[in-house]
Write a structure and sequence with these properties.
CATH superfamily of the largest domain: Intergrase catalytic core
Oligomer: single chain
Number of helices: 12
Shape: elongated
CATH topology of the largest domain: hpI Integrase, Chain A
Largest sheet: 3 strands, antiparallel
Order of helices and strands: HHHHHHHHEEEHHHH
Structural class: mainly alpha
Strand order of the largest sheet: 1-2-3
Distance between the termini: 65 Å
CATH architecture of the largest domain: Orthogonal Bundle
Helix content: 40-55%
């Protein structure tokens, strides 16, 4: 009886729902939320046109791309949303739901580098941002140091607890929960360690980065905080938390750090993710 009850929810799913859940089950956190939104966007388009997603062919997907273009979506947004759709079909084939992938021959939009707003700060710009953060608060200083000096993702930084810090063999190590729920122990350079200790103050436990209410700083609040600090520092370009991670990577490569070492520092599974192209005026 219990086994039948447990099986019923899956048996009641139609093939498209099952394929979607199977595809999304491999993601977590922010990636799961983004992929869910992108896939829901596509499935709604199919439903409005009486297209069965698992019976869609290449022309349907080409029309989906043209429809997004007509709605005025940016090429980067179209590319990201279609990448999710392509992943959905790829895993439908892997799971035996489809015989062939209809997205393979689809002409994807070309995303110009300048249209991606992937800014990288010049060392002097980062120094100005760090100065503004230091003057603002100990928490702001720690946030900018963690993102720009050791290349953490914003979710990794905001998820740090004070108890994640420990000493080992003369080094101060920070243990974080990285992308894909992978733990990583990162040695802290002295400037980052000082900023972190200032942010801790006299506390023994709890989140490292706090908001004005004394609660854990959220990803959204961290992004807003960085935008405010950028204005204070006189920076005019678009600044996101990932800008500082790219700045960390670029600074390392430009200073001569081997690509393999930079890949390890960035915790990239594929070295092709690590090299950065630069737009006009970027270092």
């Amino acid at each position: 009886m219990i086994q039948a009850e447990l099986a019923n929810p899956w048996q009641q799913l139609d093939p498209t729902q099952y394929a979607a859940m199977s595809f999304l089950a491999r993601y977590r956190g922010a990636t799961l939320r983004a992929c869910t939104q992108d896939l829901r966007y596509f499935l709604r388009w199919c439903a409005e046109r009486d297209v069965e997603p698992l019976l869609a062919e290449r022309p349907h997907l080409e029309l989906y791309l043209r429809w997004m273009e007509q709605r005025g979506l940016a090429p980067a947004t179209i590319g990201r949303r279609f990448t999710t759709v392509a992943g959905f079909y790829r895993y439908a084939v892997i799971d035996g739901r489809l015989q062939k992938d209809p997205s393979l021959a689809v002409t994807r939009p070309r995303v110009p580098w300048e249209g991606q707003r992937r800014t990288v700060l010049h060392p002097l710009e980062y120094a100005a941002l760090l100065t503004a953060a230091r003057r603002d608060s100990a928490g702001s200083h720690a946030l900018v140091a963690l993102l720009g000096m050791i290349g953490l993702r914003v979710g990794e930084a905001t998820g740090i607890n004070i108890t994640d810090l420990r000493s080992q063999s003369g080094y101060e190590l920070l243990t974080i929960m990285g992308k894909g729920a992978k733990l990583a122990a990162i040695p802290l350079p002295v400037p980052v360690l000082r900023a972190v200790r200032d942010a801790i103050g006299g506390r023994a436990a709890g989140p490292l980065l706090l908001n004005r209410n004394g609660e854990r700083l959220s990803r959204q609040a961290a992004a807003g905080q960085l935008s405010r600090l950028a204005r204070t520092a006189g920076l005019t370009q678009h600044l996101s938390p990932h800008t500082l991670r790219r700045t960390f990577c670029t600074a390392g490569l430009v200073s001569g750090v081997p690509l393999r070492d930079m890949q390890y520092a960035m915790r990239h599974a594929d070295s092709r993710t690590t090299p950065l192209r630069h737009g006009p005026g970027e270092p």
